[in-house]
Design a protein that fits this description.
By secondary structure, this protein is an alpha/beta fold. It has one domain (26-178): Rossmann fold, CATH 3.40.50. It is built from five helices and seven strands, in the order αβαβαβαβαβββ. It has helices at residues 26-36, 53-60, 73-86, 99-104, 129-136, and strands at 43-47, 65-69, 92-95, 115-120, 139-150, 162-169, 172-178. It has a seven-stranded mixed beta sheet, sandwiched between helices.
């Protein structure tokens, strides 16, 4: 696996040596940014970070900050090693906690809109609409949330943001939601 575009294009990424993650393929990661747009100048939340590849891709493409959430300690070590190897200590913050734990932290309450893009790639068995809805509260007006899930499942129905597009890539579906812009 490698960075696909931007300043770090072509740089390799180590993969966690565990079956606990299901990294987005290069094709799906490329499609995510093709549809969501360039994250230039934005803060990004990479929930369920897994290998960290989506967050590193966002930084390579111009994001100013990535907050990544990963609960698995072994996987988190690989993410930290990749961040160091890529020289991304300046813009990559790893939170080693579950997404539910991150949401429950006092610093997250009340939720403050601060992310222009939220990438949520939960384990397929943990696709929980209530958690995704709570994450959506952190989107800036006009921000996009991308949810990766099994193509065999319907897109999650979320209360606070609008489903705008779904793309299928074999067993993986990407569902794009948009936060309404304030007028």
């Amino acid at each position: 696996m490698k960075i696909l575009a931007g300043e770090l294009r072509g740089r390799p990424l180590a993969q966690p040596k565990t079956r606990a993650t299901r990294p987005l393929s290069d094709k799906v990661r490329a499609a995510l940014f093709d549809v969501a747009g360039a994250p230039e100048g934005q803060a990004i939340l990479d929930a369920y970070a897994g290998s960290g590849a989506a967050g590193f891709e966002a930084l390579s493409r111009g994001a100013v900050l990535v907050d990544a959430i990963e609960a698995n300690a072994r996987v988190a070590r690989t993410i930290q090693q990749n961040a160091a190897a890529l020289g991304l200590d300046w813009g990559f913050v790893l939170h080693q906690v579950t997404v539910a734990g991150w949401l429950a932290a006092p610093a997250q309450n009340p939720p403050a809109p601060r992310y222009g893009l939220i990438i949520a790639d939960p384990p397929y068995a943990q696709l929980e609409a209530d958690i995704l809805d709570r994450l959506a509260a952190f989107l800036t007006p006009g921000g996009v949330m991308v949810v990766s899930h099994s193509s065999k499942l319907p897109s999650p129905t979320l209360e606070s943001i609008e489903l705008v597009k779904q793309k299928l890539y074999g067993d993986t579906a990407l569902t794009f939601y948009k936060h309404p812009s304030e007028n």
